[in-house]
Amino acid sequence: MTPEWLSMLTDTSRLAIFGSAICLVVHGSRQSLKLDEEETVDENGTVVTNTRQSNLQILDSKQALFLPVGASVSLLMLFYFFDSMQFFFTVVSTVIAGFSVAAFVLPFFQYIFKDCPAQQCRGIACWSRYCECCGPLSLAGLASALVATIVVVTWVLTAHWALMDALGYGVCVCMIAYVRVSSLRVSTVLLCGLLLYDVFWVFFSSAIFHSNVMLDVATKEADNPVSMLANRMNLKHVGMSAPQLSLPGKLMFPSTNVQGHFAMLGLGDIVMPGLLLCFVMRFDHHKAKYYEPKSTGFKYYYFTIALMGYAVGLLLASMVSELTHHAQPALLYLVPCTLIPVVILARVQGDLRRMWVEPFAGLEKPADVLTV
Question: What is the C-alpha to C-alpha distance for residues 7 and 310, in angstroms, rounded to an integer?
Fold first, then answer.
């Protein structure tokens, strides 16, 4: 007889969650690194950033410290006022997810079309990659917007889990690529605070609010905006056909072992550890480029150890959830499995002080004059 934990590991829903989370973290980190590589230097030696780089959000220690507080407030609002504000919650989350999908597919269209010579650019008629003169009105931008619109509209009309996952993919990649932690200290504050947030709302919220707040919010379904608008316009036959929507804040995959069962993973369990992995990938790249330019060793060793820890954390969270038959705060396993190996390796390599405070300071100097 197959052990329960082994059956869980071979369930396609768990495998899909595992593979998706790993791929999203890697892809988001790579996109963030590409933004660094898009920096150019003008004739005066000044670093010039493009439009996409200007959209970056850098988290400092104060923001990292208060983010779990803000997340708790948002969770309570969803818990208490979901029924009265579900139209607002649905529209806002759908619009954000739609823009994220457009940004997610944009690089794929950029590779399809030719570069845009600025002197010949005609905006909307230009077959080009994303550029300063075209901006989102390049053909690549229009194509990505069209794809995002199709995904969002089809999801609203069908409520299919695969389309909701597509929206989640876009949100994860954009968050990892465009939100950055400035140092290992900020990442530690952020992840430890979110670990406490996750543990409290999953394990201890029932004692105070008489319900598992996290699980209740994660499984809520909202009335379809089409249905709500149709009812206001007295088109009840239209509204009745519109399905309820599960908001795009998680990934869901149907189980092959249990009919009607879905494996779920919150987007925060991908994005928040993903910010750490994005940080260490960028540090690996800059260290190899500036601190050890003559090194021929494997470049992404911090990222590799963090990614392996992330995979182990996902497996532990899944196994404990399956064996205990109780929802688990995934960050309880993901944070130690990613953060501790990175800190230990940084200590061994002598990079801890640099990573902790100002990991990218002074990178414009030659490698032989840099000091820790």
Answer: 21
* Type of residue numbered 307: L
| 368 assigned to some structural domain | no
Tell me, what amino acid is at 49?
Answer: T
- pLDDT for 257: 72
Residues 6+ apart with CB under 8 A from 168: 97, 248, 249, 250, 251, 267
**Residue 89 within a domain:** yes
CB 236 within 8 A of CB 102: no
Paired sense of beta strands 250-254 and 262-266, if any? antiparallel
Provide the domain count of the chain.
1
The CA R_g of the chain, rounded to the nearest whole Å, is: 22
Q: How far is CA 177 from CA 24, 86, 173, in A?
A: 10, 29, 6
> Residue 288 falls within a domain, yes or no?
yes
Residues in the chain where the model's pLDDT stays below 70: 1-10, 38-54, 114-137, 235-241, 291-298, 361-372
Question: CB neighbours (10 Å) of residue 329?
Answer: 23
Integer Cα distance of 89 and 74 in angstroms:
11
Work out the widest C-alpha separation in the chain, in whole angstroms.
74
Q: Is the pTM of this model over 0.70?
A: yes
Dihedrals phi, psi of 148, to nearest 5 degrees? -60, -40
Q: Per the domain annotation, does 124 fall within a domain? A: yes
Look up the domain containing 259 and give its range.
Answer: 4-40+49-363
Q: Across-strand partners of 245?
A: 222
Give the number of other CB atoms < 10 A from CB of residue 226. Answer: 18
Cα–Cα dist 322/229, whole Å: 41
SS3 16: helix
Q: Catalytic amino acids?
A: 198, 269
Among candidate residues 173, 191, 186, the one with its CA nearest the CA of residue 33:
173
Q: Are β-strands 57-59 and 179-181 bridged in parallel, bridged antiparallel, or unpaired?
A: parallel
